[in-house]
Amino acid sequence: MANENVVIIKRSKKGGHAAHHGGAWKVAYADFVTAMMAFFLLLWLLNATTEAQKAGIADYFSPTSLSMSSGGAGGMLGGQSISSPGALTSRTAVPSVSLELKPTSGATAGDAEEEGGANDKDKSAEQAMAEAEAEAALQKMRQQQIETENAQFEETEKEIRLAIEKNPDLKGLEEHLLIDQTPEGLRIQVIDREGKPMYASGSTTMLPRTQKLVAQIALAIKTLPNKVKVAGHTDSTPFKSKKKGYSNWELSGERAQESRRVLVEGGLDSDRVVAVEGRAARDPLLPDDTTSPRNRRISIMLLRQPPPKNAKAPAPDASGAPSTGGKPGTDARKPALPTNLNKDWTGPRVR
């Protein structure tokens, strides 16, 4: 038994597949991913840049510029330059890009320090500042115009009330007069009172005292430059007439027309009248009592002048002071323009 041969089996363990190949594949894969990232970045740059930017990038990688002219002065007496024709290059110089800067508008070729972009920004800033100054000037002129008109309206109201007090024929009619300033202009209203009408009942003809009052209003406003709007109003009581279809609308409209005729006869320029309206009972003076006699009235509106469209200063009058278009003799600080001017005037020139 001791002499029997013993069989010994030796098994060796070999390393795995990864240990055999190592980690070189990781480096190759990383290089591939980096190359793909650079490739897609290049595609993005080509899509995101403009043609001018692409040309600039191309010039950066080929900075050498060639001259098409021959060396020397050229011509019959032209010699030869010592160096080779064209632009000189240096092997030790850092590559650079040369760009030609063209002069902007208003500049000469020698104005190398000025750049188009900076000039455009300066012009834009100057233009914005000029527009802001023009807008501020317009606002100031508009405010001055409103103040001047308000002063003229107040003076007109005083003149009308003073004329009524001084005229015996108009005594007691001040209670039929309502004058106020609205955003639209100066509103002068001639109203009925209980037992004291301005028109005969159902009639479109003014009573004599009403004609005198309206004529006095025409004298007070005829020198002002403002346009005029006339409106007739009634109460809400239905109007009974033998005429078929004749109502408060027709009555108020005809009374407004009659008021316009009296104003024109009193001296108001007919061209200044821009509207004559019949409002019936649509705009009552007393909304809570639409049947009140005070709702029957004639409204004469002096419309405010349109705002100025530019910041030009008003033309001076003969005394050298700026004119305001007010009535002559009402205020020494507000000299008035003549009422009849040439259209292409550079100063007050009466035809």
Shape verdict? elongated
- Could you give the order of strands across the largest sheet? 1-2-5-3-4
* CATH class descriptor name of the domain at 136-303: Alpha Beta
Distance between the termini: 159 Å
Alpha carbon gyration radius: 47 Å
Assign the structural class, choosing from mainly alpha, mainly beta, alpha/beta, alpha+beta, or little secondary structure.
alpha+beta
Q: How much strand?
A: 5-15%
Based on DSSP secondary structure assignment, what is the total number of beta strands? 5
Mean pLDDT across the residues is 76
CATH superfamily of the domain at 136-303: OmpA-like domain
CATH architecture tag of the domain at 136-303? 2-Layer Sandwich
Order of helices and strands: HHHHEEHEHEE
Q: How many individual helices?
A: 6
CATH overall fold name of the domain at 136-303: 60s Ribosomal Protein L30, Chain: A
* Biggest beta sheet attributes: 5 strands, mixed
Q: Could you estimate the helical fraction of the residues in percent? A: 25-40%
Uncertain runs are 313-351
Properties at a glance:
5-stranded mixed sheet, disordered C terminus, 351 residues, alpha+beta, 60s Ribosomal Protein L30, Chain: A
Note down, in words, how this protein is organized.
The chain has 351 residues and is an alpha+beta fold. The chain has a domain at 136-303: 60s Ribosomal Protein L30, Chain: A, CATH 3.30.1330. Helix content is 35%, strand content 9%. It has six helices and five strands, in the order ααααββαβαββ. It has helices at 17-21, 24-48, 51-61, 116-166, 208-221, 248-265, and strands at 177-181, 185-191, 228-233, 273-278, 297-303. Residues 313-351 have low confidence and may be disordered.
